[in-house]
């Protein structure tokens, strides 16, 4: 049976691949974007909602749109995120707080709203898109790494709260992925990155979406409170 699925930050990169994957599986997908327009070439039938996850009213409106289009949300994927990279000694307060507000508190807003309907349904899947840097650290990304590390505590605490109602909560932790953000890196920087990845290549967004789909599908029914790396071995041992 098709499910009601909500994906935040679904207009590009990993988020858009997640939207494609759920739509291809026959689910009814609602996806959010913060600015611009819905992407060209998006799957037919997706409900697009302009929403900023730093605004609770926007998050509520996105869920309301999903509920109107397809019924109570059964799968919520918190993918929306930003970066503001800078060495810590030069990082202004707002660059730290803005990244945490979007990446961590935004995911909290999504998870909080998702659980309202899922608790009534007595089932649901919540997937938070984290990062390998949450576990390994990354120079120049204290804000981003802190926000993604916070997702682990959020997911595991919430998993304990709602597990008895048939709701799972997990984190997918991608490594370096072929997206707009990595496309602007110099060839020297890309070579440096690939030198630290045992598989010797970047991930595709579709590979990350596949793991999200696993956690949201029948095979992932007994997985909760987990952090699943999709990083080519970059973060092994952490």
UniProtKB/TrEMBL annotation:
The keyword Coiled coil does not apply. Residues 3-180 form the Ketoreductase domain. Pfam families: adh_short_C2 (PF13561). InterPro entries: KR_dom (IPR057326), NAD(P)-bd_dom_sf (IPR036291), Sc_DH/Rdtase_CS (IPR020904), SDR_fam (IPR002347). Belongs to the short-chain dehydrogenases/reductases (SDR) family. It comes from Motilibacter deserti. Keywords: Oxidoreductase. This is SDR family oxidoreductase. SUPFAM superfamilies: NAD(P)-binding Rossmann-fold domains. Coiled coil: none annotated.
């Amino acid at each position: 049976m098709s499910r009601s699925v909500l994906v935040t930050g679904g207009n590009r990169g990993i988020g858009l691949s997640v939207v494609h994957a759920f739509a291809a599986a026959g689910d009814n997908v609602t996806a959010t974007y913060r600015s611009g327009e819905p992407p060209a070439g998006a799957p037919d039938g997706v409900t697009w909602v302009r929403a900023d996850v730093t605004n609770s009213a926007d998050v509520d409106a996105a869920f309301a749109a999903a509920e109107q289009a397809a019924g109570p949300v059964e799968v919520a994927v918190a993918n929306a995120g930003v970066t503001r990279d800078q060495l810590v000694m030069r990082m202004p307060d707002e660059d730290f707080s803005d990244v945490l507000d979007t990446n961590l508190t935004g995911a909290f807003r999504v998870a909080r709203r998702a659980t309202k309907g899922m608790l009534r349904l007595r089932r649901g899947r919540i997937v938070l898109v984290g990062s390998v840097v949450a576990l390994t650290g990354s120079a120049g990304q204290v804000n981003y790494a802190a926000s993604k590390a916070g997702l682990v505590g959020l997911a595991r605490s919430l998993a304990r709260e709602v597990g008895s109602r048939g709701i799972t909560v997990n984190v997918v932790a991608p490594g370096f992925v072929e997206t707009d953000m990595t496309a602007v890196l110099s060839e020297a920087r890309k070579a440096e990155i690939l030198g630290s990845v045992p598989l010797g290549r970047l991930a595709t967004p579709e590979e990350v979406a596949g793991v999200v789909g696993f956690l949201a599908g029948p095979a992932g029914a007994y997985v909760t409170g987990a952090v699943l790396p999709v990083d080519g071995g970059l973060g092994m041992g952490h």
